[in-house]
Design brief:
globular; single chain; Lipocalin; 29-stranded mixed beta sheet; mainly beta
């Protein structure tokens, strides 16, 4: 099944300092020759500190949501959020979800509401309080016309602001008080590294149920051990030993699990990482065959880098003989301008073209200069870029040549961004 996602981005210049405010993103998803379009747009009222985020899905089954977010006078803290769903039969926006947030000295309180018959109904409340050495988090539910405590998590921090003790409470509605049910204690070494985690359950008395240990043995290997208390004795359930081969720049991690019949730890997994210049060069994972008493390779990945330590090729080989290869190309600014995907021919052992994506960038605008108040940018899509994307081309290989499935162009005219899309398949646009 062929599935493609195309992005349209619309911006406007909001200052002379190259600050760009993102207005909308349009995505066209093509599946088996059919497509539908979704649009995410945002508008911010600077005077009233109010943000509106609109999601529209066009096609045979149009759908839409709208969020209205109110910020404080400084435009930093969220005070309320209202979410609506579009009713295509009536043409109206129906209430869906709402949250109201208040702030005190060290406390943040969020009340949430769901819609019943298009009216807001209390749902859940979350209360979080922070001090220099602790954090308290309480959850309430709404019943009998009032907020009722449900659960509480209390975290005590050490001098390094790391978790020292975490306590879990439930509310006893009969006795009107919190009851401690479980806790976790953390122990650190002199260097501040986690050494041990012990999980307790409240029965008649406090009973330790599970222990996680992290340590380095006398050979310099890192050990992770998971133990459970059984008949007053700590039994190791699984264990991972990571050996560091500094001569060959290699890490070998072997995981063992407890055989409940033999009461012995047995091999299950081996994972090897090889490094070059502090970058992963190879990864290999094996599974243990307990009958034949030997390791079998599951998969292998190989990584290639350029002089700037950018990943330019990634190969994966699997135990069935198949494989896939990704090749990345970059421009002088470090933007990813092409991703080529190839599959391994199991008979010829040669790579064959499968799909390709090409990117063109506006080298005058960096993506960090873009204001995205509603967080509508897909960060995964943009993570390998420095500048804003102007053009995207998506191709599939038919065995003889590359077939252009979608092309997106962005043009900048008179300080405004205009979008133009070229596609053989025209979609029917639907508007609210």
């Amino acid at each position: 099944m062929i599935k493609k996602i195309i992005f349209f981005l619309v911006f406007s210049v909001v200052s002379l300092a190259q600050q760009i405010e993102l207005k909308s993103i349009e995505k066209t998803i093509i599946t088996n020759g059919q497509n539908y379009t979704t649009t995410l747009s945002q508008s911010y009222d600077e005077k009233n500190k109010k943000l509106e985020v609109l999601y529209v899905e066009k096609g045979d089954y149009p759908f839409g949501t709208k969020e209205i977010i109110q910020f404080d006078a400084e435009g930093n803290k969220e005070l309320s959020k209202e979410k609506f769903k579009y009713n295509i039969s009536t043409g109206n926006w129906n209430k869906d979800y709402k949250s109201v947030t208040t702030y005190e000295k060290n406390k943040k309180i969020e009340e949430t509401y769901m819609a019943e018959e298009n009216k807001w109904t209390e749902y859940m409340k979350y209360e979080k309080e922070n001090t220099n050495d602790s954090e308290t988090y309480i959850i309430y539910n709404f019943k009998n016309k009032k907020w009722n405590p449900s659960t509480k998590t209390y975290t005590l921090l050490n001098k390094n602001k790391k978790d020292n003790i975490i306590e879990l409470y439930t509310w006893n509605k009969n006795n009107k008080k919190w009851e401690l049910e479980a806790k976790t204690e953390y122990t650190y070494n002199q260097e501040g590294e986690l050494e041990e985690t012990v999980i307790y359950k409240k029965e008649d008395n406090w009973v330790a149920k599970q222990k996680l240990k992290y340590y380095t043995d006398n050979k310099g290997n890192q050990i992770y051990s998971d133990l459970f208390l059984e008949n007053g004795e700590w039994i190791e359930q699984d264990k991972t030993v990571t050996e560091f081969d500094k001569v060959n720049n290699k890490e070998v991690a072997i995981t063992q699990q407890l055989n409940k019949e033999t009461k012995q730890l047995e091999n299950t997994r081996r994972f090897i990482q090889t490094y070059k210049n502090d970058m992963v060069e190879q990864e290999v994972q094996y599974s243990w065959d307990k009958d034949e008493k030997k390791w079998y390779k599951n998969y292998e990945q190989i990584y290639f880098y350029n002089e700037n330590k950018k990943l330019i090729r990634q190969q994966a080989f699997f135990n069935d003989g198949s494989g896939v290869q990704f090749t990345y190309k970059f421009d002088k600014n470090g933007n990813n301008i092409e991703i080529l995907t190839e599959n391994l021919n199991t008979k010829t052992k040669l790579w064959k073209n499968y799909e390709k994506t090409e990117y063109l960038y506006d080298l005058s605008i960096e993506k960090d200069e873009v204001i995205d108040r509603g967080h509508i940018i897909d960060e995964k899509e943009e993570e390998d870029s420095v500048n804003l994307i102007l053009e995207k081309k998506y191709y599939l290989y038919d065995g003889k040549k590359w077939i252009l499935t979608k092309k997106l162009n962005t043009y900048m005219i008179k300080n405004k961004f205009l979008m133009e899309s070229k596609n053989e398949n025209r979609c029917i646009c639907w508007k609210f």
